[in-house]
Amino acid sequence: xxxxxxxxxxxxxxxxxxxxxxxxxxxxDHRFHPVDFPGTGVHYREPCPATMxxxxxxxxxxxxxxxxxxxxxxxxxxxxxxxxxxQHASEGEIQNLVLINTSSGFSPPWHxxxxxxxPRIVRLLARRELFDREADILRLTSNSxxxxxxxxxxxxxxxxxxxxxxxxxxxxxxxxxxxxxNRRPLPDALLLASKRDRIVYWKCSEKLEQRxxxxxxxxxxxxxxxxxxxxxxxxxxxxxxxxx
Length: 244
Prior knowledge:
- By secondary structure, the protein is α/β, with parallel strands linked by helices.
- It has helices spanning 19-26, 52-62, 77-88, 109-112, 117-126, 130-141, 148-160, 165-177, 203-212, 226-229, 231-243, and strands at residues 2-6, 31-35, 70-75, 94-100, 190-194, 215-219.
């Protein structure tokens, strides 16, 4: 099984850290492929579209050499891309869908982006001091004790492959305007949410659970970047869900 890994707003595949390697160790018979959005990672020089559908189409072009069917594990904005993909996929194209701390137009704006997060995110995107900005993003997205090594790693990513303010704004526009179709794309999907997420209210995941009778698991302590705060918990939830 080929898994596509999608990250969130202004983040790229390097921000997964060792999580893809953990997945490969936990599921040796599966293949995991981190993919960057336009305007980030290996595509940081490309302009990013301002709609989720256009971003999703760019992602599909990137993985066209990988044989389907696919499974998708996606975080935050990546979950919106994954959901849009699943709703437009051909029969059997998407086998498994794992959405982590994502949101959609089914939830009110103040749940999709918690009011306390808005001014902080706008200030962060405009901040010029790269190390301080990446450190503040880490503090906002993670509930773990700030780790200097991770801060340095994120700073290095931004130095090497900087996300422009224009592309950050385009991604933010796409995420804010995303509205899924009403039809359920799969009989079941795994929704993972963090009770103490300070960016996206966990009830956005509950809204998808209630609408489509999907499986929801809630972490009591982790922040928005759940794979960073508790990667083993994520892996165990995926393992159990795949078995069941």
